[in-house]
Amino acid sequence: MNYYDEYNRKLKTPEQAVRFVKSGDWVDYGTNVCFPVLLDRALAARRDELTDVKIRGNLAFGPIEVVECDPGQEHFTYNSWHCSAYERKLADKGLCFYIPMIFRNVVPYYRHFLDVNVAMMCATPMDKHGYFNLSCAGGVAKGILRDADIVILEINENLPYIYGGFDESIHISEVDCVVEGEHGPLPELPMTEPTKEDIAIAERLLPYIRSGSTLQLGIGSMPNVIGARLAQSDVTDLGMHTELCGDAYYELFKAGKLTNRRKTYQPDKGVTGMVFGSQKLYDWVDRNPGIVIEPLEYVNAAETIARHQNMISINSCISVDLYGQVNAESSGLRHISGTGGSLDYLTGAAMSRGGKAFICMTSTFKEKDGTIRSRIVPHFNGDIVTNPRSQSYFIVTEFGAVNLTGRTTWERAEMLISIAHPSFRDELVKAAEEQRIWRRSNKR
What is the rounded CA–CA span in Å between residue 399 and residue 443? Predict the structure, then answer.
């Protein structure tokens, strides 16, 4: 069968393809570098013809033309599963609404509860067998496309082709429309320079990570810093099982530390659900037999994670209260990012034989006016609880690492205050006393 004949029958311009969208529709854009730039621009051009079009996406680098062209939200409403820095700025303006979720459940949400009238996202060029690779979005893309009424693929010639276990590709027979056009270089999110506090946190973690461990490094600068420090350590034969493959894994591979040989599940394969970072990272994962992308409902399932012995999960957060509740999503009522896979890996790593789950943060942060605030707080007041206190494990700052598992409220308060910045410890002790979670004989 000549699949190129079918391809040519379905080939449209972006302007023709977005005619499928009607007022009131739910439209999906996909995630990260698979964002459909040409289709988004064409849909924005139809602004005055449409009303109440709701769009879902996440981790978009921007700009999102349907948002930028309609600040009054009379025509388009944008919603995100996990906010990038760009989407956070939109949320600050009331132009992006967050969808609460746990990453392993996103595709099941679509399968059981959500409508997708039109799904449009980028994929690699079609191969001779009629398949398009879903590239860096493989962890969620196929599940969304499978449940869409209309499937539109935008071909991005610059996307890496990433091998998969399943659901990493879609066939031309499952696609309603294909568009082509010129794309610029893929957006990049390179690693940032670490602060002295970041380095201190990484040093606190290193003694817990032994050769042969399998790593999950979450989204943000902190996990990347830890990966970079591991690359310089004497730890060897590390494995990768993660929702997001970022540059830290490439640095570990380049240093000879990431081999995947000693993984107790899917050995010799680095497993991920999404990829974004630098061009060097995209080049590394392109047609690399050592890297596979699989659906996040499988990758992030606690039972999958737990099959890896010595599973080490490292994620960052915004704040922790004295009860051990973890907030990785908001600063007060201001939305910052999202739940992502933090709770998935906290659960799975805790179930793993020899596994450990770490939540990392600097002890303080600076407000815009220069005021220094503690990230360890007496209790939350409007902040979103990402991880409940019942599932807290290791909490790490530059002042130490403490394990809250099975600890009483007064033990947690004492442990967390011990790793708070010294300038805030006295007031935290006073708050703990007022909250009746401070034992009189506790050390001060």
Answer: 17
Give dist(CA 296, CA 416) in Å, integer.
32
Return the H-helix or E-strand segment holding 123: strand 116-123
Q: Is the peptide bond before 160 cis (omega within 30 degrees of 0)?
A: no
Where helices occur in 11-123 by DSSP H, the ranges are 14-17, 37-44, 65-68, 85-92, 106-112
Mean pLDDT to the nearest integer, 85-113: 96
Nearest of 290, 243, 284, 287 to residue 263 by alpha carbon = 290
Of 154, 243, 251, 294, which one is the catalytic site residue?
243
Task: List pLDDT tens digits, range 41-77.
Answer: 999 999 999 999 999 999 999 999 999 999 999 999 9
Distance CA 255, CA 253 (A): 5
Determine the Cα–Cα distance for residues 80 and 103; give it in Å rounded to an integer: 12
pTM, full prediction: 0.95
What does the pLDDT read at residue 441?
75
Q: Which amino acid is at 237?
A: D
* Domains in the chain with CATH codes: 25-179 (3.40.1080.10), 196-434 (3.40.1080.20)
What are the backbone dihedrals phi and psi of residue 365, each rounded to the nearest 5 degrees, phi first? -145, 165
Residues 6+ apart with CB under 8 A from 300: 102, 103, 104, 243, 273, 341, 344, 345, 348
Pairwise CA distance, residues 404 & 285, whole Å: 37
Q: How far is CA 38 from the centre of its chain?
A: 24
243 is catalytic: yes
* Residue 232 token pair: 């310089």
Instruction: Give the whole-angstrom CA distance, residue 174 versus residue 152.
Output: 10
What's the pLDDT at 444? 54
Residue 36 structure tokens: 């459909």
